[in-house]
Design goal:
The structure holds 2 protein chains of 2 kinds. Chain A is mostly helical. Chain A is built from 10 helices and no strands. The longest helix of chain B has 35 residues. Classes of the chains: A mainly alpha, B mainly alpha. At the A-B interface, α3, α5, α8 and α10 of A face α2, α3, α4, α6 and α8 of B. Chain A: It is found in: Cell membrane; Membrane.
């Protein structure tokens, strides 16, 4: 049974405040990189349709490697610590962001492009002022999928000495403390849901500003 | 040395596992996405649940299945499904809810029923987003289907783990290469399906 007392005990024993901060640090670096790389890749393959299939298939192959294996594979290259975890996160999150960005950009109605062209926007302006805002819901959706994903991968990273909340889970498993496993597991899940909700609020704000209809 | 027959059998098991799960996931996701259009409450619950399941490392999801459902094919299907739901539901919902309201107004003006609007306007509009989600979920399913070999689902994971345990690169590759080919096959097969179902008036 999880009472407040039990939670407080686990929290203090495993230094969970510090672990949460570590966790969120790794998570935010990973997510930021994923968004930048993912959106860039998405825009790039949209601009050069010939590259779309090879690039997406390459990302598909990366995505095929189970997350645990990916972190282990990166260990010899990036050494112990947060490096492999962040790298695995990014590699894992590029596909949902890039694919959604690409789909969103492709789905923008031709009419809008004509109008943008007609009022004298350069292709770059048309991309930033018309296409990207119009495909915002899908891009944001991709980012939110990546966000929740990253949470899982960062937790997994804790099992290979990256710090963060995964470490608490690891300790719980090794010392066979059911409470620690439960508290850390639930807390990670709640953080993911909470951050996703936060992302949703940002998305709504952006949508109000650049909203299409 | 791995016998070709073993690899083919495992590949077949893998394909069955991945596609069964995908079709079950699609069958669950799409009605849920439609229902979410009508009820904000349901959307909230569905998304939160899918997010929660997604935030747990895939390895853990597979492990959690054992005390609940034992080992074998069914728990593997459930484990993979839990992971595959989020991308499909999310993308389908975004696609369905982002239809130009003017279009819906026209459709109502012409006298189409709610059902016809869903069938001929919202759904085709959601296809690109929906299929992007399905392809992504398919690739994920393929990856987790390797992991579920741990809980006795069969498939290519068994050969891969054999290779890992025995430190035998050949065996490992005999499992890994078909898995990678399958990832590409999933992508191609759903791209074809998408082309097939997209009505002429939606094609660009």
């Amino acid at each position: 049974m999880l009472t407040l007392q039990v939670i407080a005990n686990v929290w203090d024993k495993h230094l969970m405040t510090m672990r949460t901060i570590e966790h969120l640090q790794m998570f935010s670096i990973a997510l930021l990189l994923s968004i930048i790389i993912g959106v860039t890749v998405g825009v790039f393959i949209y601009m050069r349709p010939k590259t779309a299939n090879p690039v997406l298939n390459f990302l598909n192959i990366v995505e095929t490697i189970p997350d645990l294996a990916l972190i282990v594979l990166l260990l010899p290259i990036l050494k112990l610590g947060a490096g492999p975890t962040i790298a695995a996160c990014v590699l894992y999150s590029i596909l949902p962001v890039a694919r959604n960005t690409y789909t969103g950009l492709k789905g923008v109605d031709e009419q809008y492009t004509y109008v943008a062209h007609a009022i004298g926007l350069s292709p770059r302006e048309a991309l930033f002022k018309v296409r990207i805002p119009m495909s915002l819901p899908l891009i944001a959706g991709g980012i939110r999928i990546a966000l929740v994903f990253c949470m899982g991968v960062v937790t997994l990273g804790g099992l290979v000495a990256a710090g963060g909340l995964g470490t608490v889970l690891q300790n719980g498993i090794q010392l066979y403390e059911k409470d620690a496993i439960l508290v850390a597991g639930l807390w990670t899940g709640l953080l993911a849901v909470f951050l996703d909700g936060f992302a949703g609020i940002i998305e709504k704000k952006l949508h109000k500003r650049y909203g299409t209809w | 040395m791995v016998i070709l027959e073993t690899v083919l059998d495992a590949t077949w098991e893998h394909i069955v596992l991945v596609y069964t799960t995908l079709f079950v996931s699609i069958a669950v996701s799409i009605p849920l996405a439609f229902a979410s259009l009508y009820s904000k409450k349901l959307e909230f619950v569905v998304m939160k649940f899918a997010n929660l399941v997604q935030a747990v490392p895939s390895f853990a999801v597979v492990a959690i299945m054992v005390p609940f459902l034992g080992i074998g094919f069914t728990p593997a299907v459930v484990a993979i499904m839990l992971r595959a739901l989020l991308p499909i539901i999310k993308n389908t919902y975004i696609g369905l809810s982002n239809v130009d309201p003017a279009l819906i107004d026209y459709a109502e003006g012409v006298g189409l029923s709610q059902w016809q609007i869903h069938r001929h306007i919202r759904l085709p509009n959601a296809y690109p987003a929906m299929f992007a989600g399905i392809k992504f979920a398919g690739i994920l399913a393929n990856s987790i289907a390797v992991l579920t070999a741990f809980i006795g689902s069969g498939g290519l994971g068994e050969i891969i783990f054999q290779g890992l345990i025995g430190y035998n690169t050949r065996t490992l590759l005999a499992g890994a290469i078909p898995a990678i080919m399958l990832a590409i096959l999933i992508d191609i097969s759903f791209t074809m399906l998408e082309k097939k179902v997209t009505p002429g008036y939606m094609k660009k």
